[in-house]
Amino acid sequence: MNAPVDHLVRNGLDTTNQFAAKLKHDPSAINGARDGHVALQTSVGQANQHAGAQRVNLAQASSGATSERAVQTSKDLEKEVQDLLDESAEIERAVAEAAETLHVGEIRNDQVRDQILREIASSMKALAAVNGIQPPESRAAAARQILLQLQTKIGQLTGQAATFTEETLGKLTGLGQRLGGSESTSASSATTSVPQAFNNNGAHVSHGGGGGGDIGGGGGGGYAGKPRLPVAVPPQPGSGVGINLPGGKTVMAPNETAAKAVRAALSQLGVPYVWGGTARGQGLDCSGLTMTSYQDAGLQLPRTAKQQTVGAEVPSIDQLLPGDLVVWSGHVAMVIGDGQMVEAGDPVQISKIRTTNAGQQFIGFYRPTG
């Protein structure tokens, strides 16, 4: 297995393995908890029936204020016991529903994993057939196309697995809220949901051209956590730094670091896409472009796309400024202003800002400089 395919395999399967870990549960423990509630209901129910019989006997055998108070106390106790029985029955139903939800989630995730393995096997056969293509110089392009198609498919599949997992965790959160009467959001759903604002205010939703995945930088699409970061503070009027875009328009970056990063990224227009590439002027992948561009500006970013959610979060698309990053689970691009971004497709190119990319999970907008 060559390095690009090995990287896709590891990242694709690692994603579904992470989902499997989230859905992992102990069926015997769940069954034990459910059986425990059944036993509790039986025992408490018998006690409740006995208390009811004793109350009737008390009412028949005595009279007066003291007897009435005792009978009322017995009624109150019976009601509390009945409330306990109702709550236990609700917990029993919730435990059974949670077990079924987790079981279904595991099955769906396993199905996605099996499909990823089938896609990989099919692509390996296709790559083997590339060796027979004539003329020989066409083989590299054919192999690259096969790998890009495989990456897109894995991104779509892991995106599906992410959806299944979020649905499962959402159902479990709903069960917990139903039992506890809470409207709070679980930590898991809070870190993975994307505010609606990210898809409003004129965001382009087409896949766009040349949005190659972060193949060399740990991409693969699918699920990724959404970090909790401070919201980016808009720069004060007149404090920005000007950038001249290729079309002749001048835009204002929030600071000198962001401006330098944008200029550095634009200097790579036309550079070929290379798996894991960080060689400026020779070959770059998506996170290689953003990392080295900010590196030239004096700011070190993490290597992979989904790790470049640093600095501060930009709450909506209409607040984006040059130098901001658009991050997916397996791709990243840099905003340059005027509704555009620069990204390492094949080659490095300018595209309209969008929030979709080959079925990958959109994480959000980030300002590395805060």
Mean of residue pLDDT values: 75
Please state roughly what percent of the residues sit in beta strands, choosing from under 5%, 5-15%, 15-25%, 25-35%, 35-45% or over 45%.
5-15%
Assembly of the depicted chains: single chain
The spatial strand order of the largest sheet comes to 5-10-6-7-8-9
The helix-and-strand class reads: alpha+beta
Reading the helices and strands in chain order gives HHHHHEEHEEHEEEEEE
Uncertain stretches of 5 or more adjacent residues: 182-213, 215-223
What is the distance, rounded to the nearest whole angstrom, between the alpha carbons of the first and last residues? 41 Å
Helix content: 40-55%
Largest sheet: 6 strands, antiparallel
Number of strands: 10
Number of helices: 7
Question: Would you kindly provide a written description of the structure presented here, covering whatever features stand out?
Answer:
By secondary structure, the chain is of the alpha+beta class. Helices cover 52% and strands 11% of the residues. It is built from 7 helices and 10 strands. It has helices at 3-23, 27-61, 65-130, 139-180, 187-192, 256-266, 286-296, and strands at 241-244, 250-253, 278-279, 283-284, 312-314, 325-328, 332-337, 340-344, 348-352, 362-367. The strands form 3 sheets. It has a 6-stranded antiparallel beta sheet with strand order 5-10-6-7-8-9. It has a two-stranded antiparallel sheet with strand order 1-2. Strands 3-4 form a two-stranded antiparallel ribbon. A hairpin with a 5-residue loop joins strand 1 and strand 2. Helix 3 (65-130) packs antiparallel against helix 4 (139-180) and helix 6 (256-266) packs across helix 7. The chain is elongated, with a radius of gyration of 29 Å. The two termini are 41 Å apart.
